[in-house]
Write a structure and sequence with these properties.
The chain is an alpha/beta fold. It is 39% helix and 17% strand. The chain has helices spanning 43-51, 65-75, 87-99, 115-122, 139-144, 168-177, 191-194, 203-208, 236-245, 253-264, 266-289, 310-319, 343-359; strands spanning 30-32, 82-85, 105-109, 126-130, 132-133, 136-137, 150-156, 183-187, 212-217, 230-233, 293-294, 301-305, 322-326, 335-339. A seven-stranded mixed sheet has the order 2-10-9-8-7-3-4, sandwiched between helices. It has a five-stranded mixed sheet with strand order 1-13-14-12-11, sandwiched between helices. Bound molecules: pyridoxal-5'-phosphate.
Length: 360
């Protein structure tokens, strides 16, 4: 008798490894490895979450109607075309599962979010990476990577881990030139942080075309990564498909309640955006002052080139309780990704790096 064997492609997956956050014997930890919100979450979200402790024996609303209504109002969307997920990671996985299978291809950009190739392999499809230019997605390379087997194109805008983004005009050209049978997924997990005039999160494209979807998350700007809530805005047919394949109760009761409250706390959102913007400018300037190459970022993190000593520096920081993310899995082993923290966190990173470079 032979043992159970998973479907082809699954064992090719290198499991996704999240950012570290613990070190023995160090009590003050500075966690800048997972692009979390250094302010925590909105006190209103926490309160809504705690209130649900009395209701844990109840199933959540499988349609997440209150949350979708709140999102529809906040972002001027049709509620019927919003689908919520246990983080946008779940939605990525549902989309790939519903639209791609063995033998199909999924196009993404060279240093795009790792969950894209992982999910492609999970369904037996082939992830096809399109070359970037200076760590920025290139629409011509993305389009050139399309073949008759392509089912989905996945683009993080802005991209994690590079911090770069495609402007509205480039996105429009990409969509115009993409065959209509290919689903274009615009993952706008960091949309709130961008602020650039020529940026768009993809909602207008979803309204205009039947093959574009956009994804958002409560994990970053709202500081609810531990709860797992995300949402997507879809053409009505695609929403119907995702609603067929998702778990009936995929977003938990406290997660729905906390997300609604988080959406209502504009002050917290504005504070988070301001902190990221200020910290980003401070860190970029200080790190450049140390002679390091800092890639331009519109998100709540910076990609920084440290050369051959990147891993040694990461470990030296970790020994001081400062966690940043190694980039080997993204084929950028010479870089580290540093989440923007509080002013105090950012100053600690700079101070430690100065000390380390003084030792060298
Ligand atoms: C963090 C992140 C997500 C989603 O995170 P969830 O916690 O699953 O909502 C999606 N895409 C990118 C590019 C991210 O960086």
């Amino acid at each position: 008798m032979s043992l159970p064997v998973p479907k082809s492609g699954i064992l090719d997956i290198k499991p996704y490894i999240g950012g570290e956050g613990r070190v023995a014997g160090v009590t003050r930890l500075i966690r800048l490895a997972s692009n979390e919100n250094p302010l925590g979450c909105s006190p209103k979200a926490r309160e809504a979450y705690l209130k649900m402790a009395a209701e844990l024996h109840r199933y959540p609303d499988g349609a997440a109607a209150d949350l979708r209504a709140a999102l529809a109002q906040e972002y001027k969307m049709e509620a019927e075309r919003i689908v919520c997920g246990a983080g946008s990671d779940e939605l990525i996985s549902l989309i790939v599962r519903a639209y791609a299978g063995a033998g199909d291809e999924l196009v993404y950009s060279e240093h795009g979010f790792l969950m894209y190739p992982i999910n492609a392999k999970a369904v037996g499809a082939k992830p096809v990476a399109a070359k970037e230019i200076d760590l920025r997605a290139d629409i011509h390379a993305l389009l050139a990577a399309v073949t008759p087997k392509t089912k989905i194109m996945l683009l993080a805008n802005p991209n994690n881990p590079t911090g770069s983004y495609l402007a509205r005009a480039e996105l429009r050209v990409l969509r115009e030139k993409l065959p209509e049978n290919i689903l274009l997924v615009i993952d706008a997990a960091y949309a709130e942080f961008v602020g650039a005039e020529d940026y768009e999160d993809g909602r207008a494209l979803v309204d205009a075309y039947p093959n574009v979807v956009t994804l958002r998350t409560f994990s970053k700007i709202h500081g609810l990564a531990g709860l797992r809530v995300g949402w997507g805005y879809f053409p009505v047919e695609v929403a119907g498909v995702i609603n067929r394949v998702r778990g009936a109760f995929n977003v938990s009761l406290p997660a729905q309640a906390a997300a609604v409250a988080a959406l209502g706390d504009r002050e917290f959102v504005q504070k988070s955006i301001a902190l990221a913007k200020e910290g980003r400018a401070f860190l970029a300037k200080e790190l450049q002052g140390l002679g390091l190459k800092v890639y331009p970022s519109v998100a709540n993190f910076l990609l920084v080139e440290f050369g051959a000593s990147a891993e040694d520096i990461r470990i030296a920081l970790k020994d001081k309780g400062i966690f940043v993310r190694q980039m080997g899995a993204y084929n950028l082993p010479q870089c580290l990704r540093i989440t923007i923290g509080t002013a105090e966190d950012n100053a600690a990173v700079v101070g430690e790096l100065k000390r380390i470079s003084g030792l060298r």
